[in-house]
Protein backbone atom coordinates (compact mmCIF):
# COMPACT_ATOMS: atom_id res chain seq x y z
CA UNK A 1 0.00 0.00 0.00
CA UNK A 2 1.10 3.52 -0.72
CA UNK A 3 2.31 5.44 2.35
CA UNK A 4 1.68 9.18 2.18
CA UNK A 5 3.75 11.31 4.52
CA UNK A 6 5.31 14.75 4.72
CA UNK A 7 2.23 16.37 3.22
CA UNK A 8 0.26 19.17 4.77
CA UNK A 9 -3.09 18.36 6.30
CA UNK A 10 -4.82 20.64 3.81
CA UNK A 11 -3.22 18.77 0.89
CA UNK A 12 -4.30 15.43 2.31
CA UNK A 13 -7.83 16.73 2.92
CA UNK A 14 -8.05 17.87 -0.70
CA UNK A 15 -7.00 14.42 -1.91
CA UNK A 16 -9.62 12.82 0.31
CA UNK A 17 -12.38 15.12 -0.95
CA UNK A 18 -11.45 14.39 -4.56
CA UNK A 19 -11.39 10.65 -3.90
CA UNK A 20 -14.87 10.66 -2.35
CA UNK A 21 -16.58 12.77 -4.99
CA UNK A 22 -19.45 10.81 -6.46
CA UNK A 23 -19.51 10.97 -10.24
CA UNK A 24 -22.38 9.94 -12.47
CA UNK A 25 -21.56 8.03 -15.66
CA UNK A 26 -23.70 9.57 -18.40
CA UNK A 27 -23.57 6.35 -20.46
CA UNK A 28 -24.91 4.36 -17.50
CA UNK A 29 -27.63 6.94 -16.83
CA UNK A 30 -28.76 6.90 -20.47
CA UNK A 31 -28.91 3.12 -20.53
CA UNK A 32 -30.80 2.99 -17.23
CA UNK A 33 -33.34 5.52 -18.48
CA UNK A 34 -33.96 3.30 -21.50
CA UNK A 35 -34.42 0.23 -19.30
CA UNK A 36 -36.86 2.00 -16.99
CA UNK A 37 -38.89 3.26 -19.94
CA UNK A 38 -39.08 -0.24 -21.42
CA UNK A 39 -40.25 -1.75 -18.14
CA UNK A 40 -42.90 0.93 -17.72
CA UNK A 41 -44.10 0.36 -21.27
CA UNK A 42 -43.89 -3.43 -21.56
CA UNK A 43 -44.00 -4.69 -17.98
CA UNK A 44 -43.27 -8.39 -17.54
CA UNK A 45 -42.25 -8.85 -21.16
CA UNK A 46 -39.47 -6.30 -20.73
CA UNK A 47 -38.30 -8.12 -17.61
CA UNK A 48 -38.18 -11.41 -19.52
CA UNK A 49 -36.27 -9.81 -22.38
CA UNK A 50 -33.70 -8.25 -20.06
CA UNK A 51 -33.34 -11.47 -18.09
CA UNK A 52 -32.42 -13.22 -21.33
CA UNK A 53 -30.19 -10.51 -22.80
CA UNK A 54 -28.45 -9.22 -19.67
CA UNK A 55 -28.44 -12.21 -17.32
CA UNK A 56 -28.45 -15.02 -19.84
CA UNK A 57 -31.38 -16.70 -18.10
CA UNK A 58 -34.73 -17.50 -19.71
CA UNK A 59 -37.64 -17.28 -17.26
CA UNK A 60 -41.37 -17.71 -17.68
CA UNK A 61 -42.13 -16.87 -14.06
CA UNK A 62 -40.09 -14.52 -11.86
CA UNK A 63 -41.71 -15.52 -8.58
CA UNK A 64 -39.70 -18.08 -6.61
CA UNK A 65 -41.88 -20.95 -5.46
CA UNK A 66 -42.13 -21.43 -1.71
CA UNK A 67 -41.20 -25.10 -2.10
CA UNK A 68 -37.83 -24.07 -3.58
CA UNK A 69 -37.23 -21.71 -0.67
CA UNK A 70 -38.12 -24.38 1.88
CA UNK A 71 -35.89 -26.91 0.14
CA UNK A 72 -32.94 -24.51 0.16
CA UNK A 73 -33.48 -23.86 3.88
CA UNK A 74 -33.74 -27.54 4.79
CA UNK A 75 -30.75 -28.62 2.71
CA UNK A 76 -28.44 -25.80 3.76
CA UNK A 77 -25.43 -26.77 5.82
CA UNK A 78 -26.56 -26.90 9.45
CA UNK A 79 -23.71 -24.70 10.63
CA UNK A 80 -24.51 -22.01 8.08
CA UNK A 81 -28.23 -22.15 8.89
CA UNK A 82 -27.56 -21.82 12.60
CA UNK A 83 -25.20 -18.91 11.96
CA UNK A 84 -27.86 -17.13 9.91
CA UNK A 85 -30.46 -17.72 12.61
CA UNK A 86 -28.15 -16.39 15.33
CA UNK A 87 -27.26 -13.36 13.23
CA UNK A 88 -30.95 -12.70 12.60
CA UNK A 89 -31.66 -12.70 16.34
CA UNK A 90 -28.81 -10.24 16.95
CA UNK A 91 -29.99 -7.95 14.16
CA UNK A 92 -33.56 -8.06 15.45
CA UNK A 93 -32.61 -7.36 19.07
CA UNK A 94 -30.46 -4.40 18.00
CA UNK A 95 -33.03 -2.83 15.70
CA UNK A 96 -35.91 -3.26 18.12
CA UNK A 97 -34.33 -0.45 20.14
CA UNK A 98 -34.68 1.93 17.19
CA UNK A 99 -38.45 1.98 16.94
CA UNK A 100 -39.93 5.45 17.21
CA UNK A 101 -43.14 5.85 19.19
CA UNK A 102 -46.16 8.04 18.57
CA UNK A 103 -46.63 10.95 20.98
CA UNK A 104 -49.34 13.39 21.98
CA UNK A 105 -48.92 16.73 23.70
CA UNK A 106 -51.77 18.41 25.65
CA UNK A 107 -49.72 20.92 27.63
CA UNK A 108 -51.29 23.97 25.93
CA UNK A 109 -54.89 24.66 26.95
CA UNK A 110 -57.35 23.74 24.22
CA UNK A 111 -54.67 22.35 21.89
CA UNK A 112 -53.78 18.77 21.08
CA UNK A 113 -50.59 18.19 19.09
CA UNK A 114 -49.19 14.84 18.14
CA UNK A 115 -47.30 12.59 15.78
CA UNK A 116 -48.55 9.22 14.68
CA UNK A 117 -45.79 6.78 13.74
CA UNK A 118 -46.84 4.19 11.19
CA UNK A 119 -44.97 1.63 9.09
CA UNK A 120 -44.74 1.71 5.32
CA UNK A 121 -47.15 -0.71 3.66
CA UNK A 122 -44.81 -2.46 1.21
CA UNK A 123 -41.07 -2.23 0.59
CA UNK A 124 -38.74 -3.80 -1.93
CA UNK A 125 -35.24 -4.92 -1.06
CA UNK A 126 -32.51 -5.43 -3.62
CA UNK A 127 -30.02 -8.22 -2.94
CA UNK A 128 -26.99 -8.23 -5.27
CA UNK A 129 -25.85 -11.25 -7.25
CA UNK A 130 -22.78 -11.23 -9.43
CA UNK A 131 -19.35 -12.14 -8.09
CA UNK A 132 -20.57 -13.12 -4.62
CA UNK A 133 -23.77 -14.09 -2.79
CA UNK A 134 -24.94 -11.96 0.11
CA UNK A 135 -27.35 -13.70 2.50
CA UNK A 136 -26.23 -11.18 5.12
CA UNK A 137 -27.71 -8.36 3.01
CA UNK A 138 -31.05 -10.17 3.05
CA UNK A 139 -31.11 -10.08 6.84
CA UNK A 140 -29.87 -6.49 7.08
CA UNK A 141 -32.55 -5.19 4.70
CA UNK A 142 -35.54 -7.23 5.75
CA UNK A 143 -35.31 -7.46 9.53
CA UNK A 144 -35.47 -3.71 10.27
CA UNK A 145 -38.48 -3.52 7.93
CA UNK A 146 -40.21 -6.33 9.79
CA UNK A 147 -39.37 -4.77 13.16
CA UNK A 148 -40.91 -1.51 11.90
CA UNK A 149 -44.12 -3.38 11.09
CA UNK A 150 -43.99 -3.27 7.28
CA UNK A 151 -46.88 -5.37 5.99
CA UNK A 152 -45.13 -6.86 2.95
CA UNK A 153 -41.44 -7.18 2.10
CA UNK A 154 -40.63 -8.00 -1.52
CA UNK A 155 -37.14 -9.21 -2.42
CA UNK A 156 -35.55 -9.00 -5.86
CA UNK A 157 -32.24 -10.59 -6.81
CA UNK A 158 -30.61 -11.34 -10.18
CA UNK A 159 -31.48 -14.73 -11.69
CA UNK A 160 -28.73 -17.35 -11.92
CA UNK A 161 -28.47 -20.01 -14.62
CA UNK A 162 -28.00 -22.73 -12.00
CA UNK A 163 -30.59 -21.37 -9.56
CA UNK A 164 -30.47 -18.84 -6.74
CA UNK A 165 -27.94 -19.28 -3.98
CA UNK A 166 -29.41 -21.56 -1.26
CA UNK A 167 -28.01 -19.42 1.55
CA UNK A 168 -29.74 -16.34 0.10
CA UNK A 169 -33.06 -18.20 -0.06
CA UNK A 170 -32.62 -19.57 3.46
CA UNK A 171 -31.85 -16.08 4.76
CA UNK A 172 -35.03 -14.81 3.11
CA UNK A 173 -37.06 -17.47 4.91
CA UNK A 174 -35.41 -16.66 8.25
CA UNK A 175 -36.00 -12.93 7.78
CA UNK A 176 -39.68 -13.46 6.96
CA UNK A 177 -39.62 -12.07 3.42
CA UNK A 178 -43.03 -12.39 1.80
CA UNK A 179 -42.16 -12.77 -1.88
CA UNK A 180 -38.98 -13.27 -3.92
CA UNK A 181 -38.61 -12.35 -7.58
CA UNK A 182 -35.71 -13.41 -9.80
CA UNK A 183 -35.01 -10.06 -11.42
CA UNK A 184 -31.94 -7.88 -11.12
CA UNK A 185 -30.33 -4.68 -12.28
CA UNK A 186 -32.08 -1.48 -13.27
CA UNK A 187 -35.04 -3.49 -14.56
CA UNK A 188 -35.73 -4.83 -11.06
CA UNK A 189 -35.66 -1.31 -9.60
CA UNK A 190 -38.05 -0.12 -12.31
CA UNK A 191 -40.42 -3.03 -11.65
CA UNK A 192 -40.54 -2.25 -7.94
CA UNK A 193 -41.01 1.48 -8.52
CA UNK A 194 -43.78 1.29 -11.11
CA UNK A 195 -45.13 -2.25 -10.81
CA UNK A 196 -45.77 -4.76 -13.60
CA UNK A 197 -48.40 -7.42 -14.22
CA UNK A 198 -46.80 -9.67 -11.60
CA UNK A 199 -44.45 -7.44 -9.56
CA UNK A 200 -46.28 -5.13 -7.13
CA UNK A 201 -45.37 -1.49 -6.76
CA UNK A 202 -43.62 -0.70 -3.47
CA UNK A 203 -43.30 2.42 -1.34
CA UNK A 204 -39.55 2.23 -0.81
CA UNK A 205 -36.53 0.42 -2.28
CA UNK A 206 -33.50 -0.43 -0.17
CA UNK A 207 -30.30 -2.35 -0.64
CA UNK A 208 -27.00 -1.91 -2.48
CA UNK A 209 -26.18 -2.83 -6.07
CA UNK A 210 -23.88 -2.02 -8.97
CA UNK A 211 -23.67 1.26 -10.89
CA UNK A 212 -26.82 0.45 -12.88
CA UNK A 213 -28.82 -0.29 -9.74
CA UNK A 214 -27.57 2.91 -8.10
CA UNK A 215 -28.46 4.98 -11.18
CA UNK A 216 -31.90 3.37 -11.34
CA UNK A 217 -32.58 4.14 -7.67
CA UNK A 218 -31.57 7.73 -8.29
CA UNK A 219 -33.91 7.88 -11.30
CA UNK A 220 -37.00 6.51 -9.54
CA UNK A 221 -36.57 8.52 -6.35
CA UNK A 222 -39.71 10.59 -5.96
CA UNK A 223 -41.87 7.90 -7.48
CA UNK A 224 -40.79 5.82 -4.49
CA UNK A 225 -38.47 6.46 -1.59
CA UNK A 226 -34.98 4.96 -1.46
CA UNK A 227 -32.52 4.36 1.34
CA UNK A 228 -29.37 5.81 -0.23
CA UNK A 229 -27.17 5.72 -3.33
CA UNK A 230 -24.63 3.13 -2.26
CA UNK A 231 -21.10 3.25 -3.61
CA UNK A 232 -18.16 0.85 -3.29
CA UNK A 233 -17.27 -0.56 0.13
CA UNK A 234 -14.96 1.44 2.40
CA UNK A 235 -12.94 0.93 5.53
CA UNK A 236 -10.99 3.48 7.51
CA UNK A 237 -8.73 2.54 10.41
CA UNK A 238 -7.20 4.72 13.12
CA UNK A 239 -4.24 2.92 14.70
CA UNK A 240 -1.21 3.66 16.84
CA UNK A 241 2.11 1.88 17.36
CA UNK A 242 0.57 -0.79 19.61
CA UNK A 243 -1.82 -2.10 16.93
CA UNK A 244 -1.25 -5.48 15.29
CA UNK A 245 -0.11 -4.91 11.67
CA UNK A 246 -1.22 -8.37 10.56
CA UNK A 247 -4.74 -7.78 11.88
CA UNK A 248 -4.88 -4.31 10.33
CA UNK A 249 -3.83 -5.70 6.95
CA UNK A 250 -6.48 -8.41 7.16
CA UNK A 251 -9.16 -5.85 8.01
CA UNK A 252 -8.16 -3.59 5.12
CA UNK A 253 -8.33 -6.53 2.71
CA UNK A 254 -11.70 -7.62 4.09
CA UNK A 255 -13.21 -4.60 2.33
CA UNK A 256 -10.82 -4.45 -0.62
CA UNK A 257 -11.98 -7.88 -1.74
CA UNK A 258 -15.54 -6.61 -2.25
CA UNK A 259 -14.96 -4.54 -5.35
CA UNK A 260 -12.16 -3.18 -7.54
CA UNK A 261 -13.34 0.31 -6.53
CA UNK A 262 -13.40 -0.40 -2.79
CA UNK A 263 -11.47 2.00 -0.56
CA UNK A 264 -9.11 0.97 2.25
CA UNK A 265 -7.49 3.71 4.34
CA UNK A 266 -5.25 3.56 7.39
CA UNK A 267 -4.32 6.71 9.28
CA UNK A 268 -1.55 6.42 11.85
CA UNK A 269 1.16 8.39 13.64
CA UNK A 270 3.63 5.48 13.56
CA UNK A 271 5.98 5.08 10.59
CA UNK A 272 7.00 1.59 11.68
CA UNK A 273 3.36 0.48 11.85
CA UNK A 274 2.66 2.00 8.43
CA UNK A 275 5.55 0.08 6.89
CA UNK A 276 4.63 -3.19 8.59
CA UNK A 277 0.99 -2.92 7.49
CA UNK A 278 2.01 -2.18 3.91
CA UNK A 279 4.23 -5.27 3.87
CA UNK A 280 1.55 -7.42 5.52
CA UNK A 281 -1.02 -6.40 2.90
CA UNK A 282 1.31 -7.48 0.11
CA UNK A 283 2.00 -10.79 1.81
CA UNK A 284 -1.65 -11.58 2.57
CA UNK A 285 -2.74 -10.68 -0.95
CA UNK A 286 -0.71 -13.59 -2.31
CA UNK A 287 -3.04 -16.15 -0.73
CA UNK A 288 -6.36 -14.29 -0.92
CA UNK A 289 -8.86 -16.12 -3.16
CA UNK A 290 -10.23 -12.80 -4.45
CA UNK A 291 -6.71 -11.50 -4.98
CA UNK A 292 -7.39 -10.01 -8.42
CA UNK A 293 -10.21 -7.81 -7.13
CA UNK A 294 -8.47 -6.83 -3.91
CA UNK A 295 -5.22 -6.05 -5.72
CA UNK A 296 -6.89 -3.49 -7.95
CA UNK A 297 -8.70 -1.91 -4.99
CA UNK A 298 -5.49 -1.64 -2.96
CA UNK A 299 -3.44 -0.31 -5.87
CA UNK A 300 -5.94 2.37 -6.84
CA UNK A 301 -7.79 3.20 -3.61
CA UNK A 302 -5.64 1.91 -0.78
CA UNK A 303 -3.64 4.48 1.21
CA UNK A 304 -1.78 4.79 4.48
CA UNK A 305 -1.65 8.36 5.74
CA UNK A 306 1.13 9.16 8.19
CA UNK A 307 0.56 12.19 10.44
CA UNK A 308 2.06 13.38 13.71
CA UNK A 309 -0.71 13.38 16.29
CA UNK A 310 -3.89 11.56 17.19
CA UNK A 311 -5.75 14.87 16.86
CA UNK A 312 -4.64 15.05 13.22
CA UNK A 313 -5.60 11.40 12.71
CA UNK A 314 -9.15 12.01 13.91
CA UNK A 315 -9.51 15.26 11.93
CA UNK A 316 -8.50 13.47 8.73
CA UNK A 317 -10.77 10.51 9.35
CA UNK A 318 -13.70 12.85 9.84
CA UNK A 319 -12.88 14.18 6.37
CA UNK A 320 -12.88 10.62 4.99
CA UNK A 321 -16.29 9.94 6.62
CA UNK A 322 -15.82 6.20 6.05
CA UNK A 323 -18.52 3.60 5.72
CA UNK A 324 -16.74 1.45 8.33
CA UNK A 325 -14.37 2.93 10.90
CA UNK A 326 -12.12 0.89 13.17
CA UNK A 327 -10.49 2.63 16.13
CA UNK A 328 -7.47 0.58 17.11
CA UNK A 329 -5.90 3.03 19.55
CA UNK A 330 -5.19 2.73 23.24
CA UNK A 331 -8.46 3.34 25.14
CA UNK A 332 -10.53 3.35 21.93
CA UNK A 333 -13.82 4.14 23.71
CA UNK A 334 -12.46 7.51 24.75
CA UNK A 335 -12.36 8.69 21.14
CA UNK A 336 -15.92 7.82 20.15
CA UNK A 337 -17.32 11.25 21.03
CA UNK A 338 -14.80 12.85 18.68
CA UNK A 339 -15.98 10.88 15.66
CA UNK A 340 -18.32 13.12 13.69
CA UNK A 341 -18.61 11.28 10.39
CA UNK A 342 -18.78 7.50 9.99
CA UNK A 343 -21.33 4.90 9.08
CA UNK A 344 -20.47 2.35 11.76
CA UNK A 345 -17.65 2.41 14.32
CA UNK A 346 -15.73 -0.62 15.58
CA UNK A 347 -13.90 -0.09 18.88
CA UNK A 348 -10.78 -1.97 19.89
CA UNK A 349 -8.45 -4.59 18.46
CA UNK A 350 -10.91 -7.46 18.91
CA UNK A 351 -13.77 -5.71 17.10
CA UNK A 352 -12.97 -6.61 13.51
CA UNK A 353 -15.22 -5.05 10.88
CA UNK A 354 -16.70 -8.36 9.61
CA UNK A 355 -18.46 -8.71 12.97
CA UNK A 356 -20.68 -5.88 11.78
CA UNK A 357 -20.95 -7.24 8.25
CA UNK A 358 -22.43 -10.50 9.39
CA UNK A 359 -23.39 -11.07 12.95
CA UNK A 360 -23.31 -8.59 15.81
CA UNK A 361 -26.54 -6.72 15.04
CA UNK A 362 -25.76 -3.18 13.82
CA UNK A 363 -26.67 -2.79 10.18
CA UNK A 364 -24.13 -3.20 7.39
CA UNK A 365 -26.03 -1.10 4.85
CA UNK A 366 -24.18 2.14 5.45
CA UNK A 367 -23.51 5.52 3.84
CA UNK A 368 -20.53 5.54 1.48
CA UNK A 369 -18.55 8.05 -0.56
CA UNK A 370 -18.36 10.58 2.25
CA UNK A 371 -22.14 10.71 2.67
CA UNK A 372 -21.78 9.74 6.33
CA UNK A 373 -21.37 13.50 6.79
CA UNK A 374 -25.14 13.80 6.50
CA UNK A 375 -26.74 10.35 6.37
CA UNK A 376 -27.17 7.30 8.57
CA UNK A 377 -27.12 3.50 8.47
CA UNK A 378 -30.22 1.64 7.37
CA UNK A 379 -32.52 1.30 10.35
CA UNK A 380 -36.09 0.90 11.51
CA UNK A 381 -36.55 4.64 10.95
CA UNK A 382 -36.22 4.00 7.20
CA UNK A 383 -39.41 1.95 7.24
CA UNK A 384 -41.56 4.23 9.39
CA UNK A 385 -43.29 7.45 8.49
CA UNK A 386 -44.60 10.18 10.75
CA UNK A 387 -48.03 11.75 10.44
CA UNK A 388 -48.60 14.94 12.42
CA UNK A 389 -52.00 15.89 13.80
CA UNK A 390 -53.44 18.94 15.50
CA UNK A 391 -56.69 19.86 17.27
CA UNK A 392 -57.83 23.31 18.51
CA UNK A 393 -60.94 24.12 20.48
CA UNK A 394 -62.79 27.42 20.08
CA UNK A 395 -61.08 29.25 22.93
CA UNK A 396 -57.63 28.22 21.75
CA UNK A 397 -58.37 29.42 18.22
CA UNK A 398 -59.61 32.76 19.50
CA UNK A 399 -56.47 33.12 21.59
CA UNK A 400 -54.10 32.50 18.67
CA UNK A 401 -56.11 33.98 15.79
CA UNK A 402 -54.52 37.44 15.75
CA UNK A 403 -51.00 36.00 15.57
CA UNK A 404 -51.89 33.66 12.72
CA UNK A 405 -53.64 36.45 10.78
CA UNK A 406 -50.67 38.78 11.29
CA UNK A 407 -48.26 36.18 9.89
CA UNK A 408 -50.55 35.40 6.95
CA UNK A 409 -50.80 39.09 6.07
CA UNK A 410 -47.05 39.68 6.25
CA UNK A 411 -46.60 36.84 3.75
CA UNK A 412 -49.27 38.29 1.50
CA UNK A 413 -51.57 35.28 1.79
CA UNK A 414 -54.95 36.84 2.38
CA UNK A 415 -56.74 33.51 1.91
CA UNK A 416 -54.98 32.11 4.94
CA UNK A 417 -56.08 35.05 7.05
CA UNK A 418 -59.67 34.75 5.82
CA UNK A 419 -59.76 31.06 6.74
CA UNK A 420 -59.11 32.04 10.35
CA UNK A 421 -61.45 35.06 10.25
CA UNK A 422 -64.27 32.91 8.83
CA UNK A 423 -64.63 31.22 12.20
CA UNK A 424 -65.54 34.51 13.90
CA UNK A 425 -62.30 34.64 15.81
CA UNK A 426 -61.13 38.21 15.11
CA UNK A 427 -60.72 40.21 18.29
CA UNK A 428 -61.97 43.81 18.09
Overview of this structure, please?
This protein is α/β, with parallel strands linked by helices and 428 residues long. 45% of the residues lie in helices and 16% in strands. The strands form three sheets. The protein has a six-stranded parallel beta sheet, sandwiched between helices. Helix 4 (66-75) crosses helix 7. The longest helix has 18 residues, at 78-95. It is globular and about 80 Å long. It catalyses: L-histidinol + 2 NAD(+) + H2O = L-histidine + 2 NADH + 3 H(+). One of its GO terms (cellular component) is cytosol.
Tell the overall outline: globular
CATH class of the largest domain: Alpha Beta
Mean pLDDT reading: 93
Q: What is the radius of gyration? A: 25 Å
User: How helical, in percent, are the residues?
Assistant: 40-55%
- End-to-end separation in angstroms reads 78 Å
What is the name of the CATH topology of the largest domain?
A: Rossmann fold
Number of strands: 14
Main sheet attributes: strand count, strand direction, barrel closure? 6 strands, parallel
Strand content: 15-25%
Number of helices: 16
Going by CATH, the homologous superfamily of the largest domain would be: Nitrogenase molybdenum iron protein domain
Q: Structural class of the helices, strands and pairings?
A: alpha/beta
Number of domains: 3
CATH architecture type of the largest domain: 3-Layer(aba) Sandwich
- Neighbour order of strands in the largest sheet: 1-11-10-9-12-13
Uncertain parts = none
Order of helices and strands: EHHHHHEEEHEHEHEHEEHEHHEHEEHEHH
Keywords: Amino-acid biosynthesis, Histidine biosynthesis, Metal-binding, NAD, Oxidoreductase, Zinc
InterPro entries: Ald_DH/histidinol_DH, Histidinol_DH_CS, Histidinol_DH_monofunct, Hstdl_DH
Enzyme class: oxidoreductase
Pathway: Amino-acid biosynthesis; L-histidine biosynthesis; L-histidine from 5-phospho-alpha-D-ribose 1-diphosphate: step 9/9
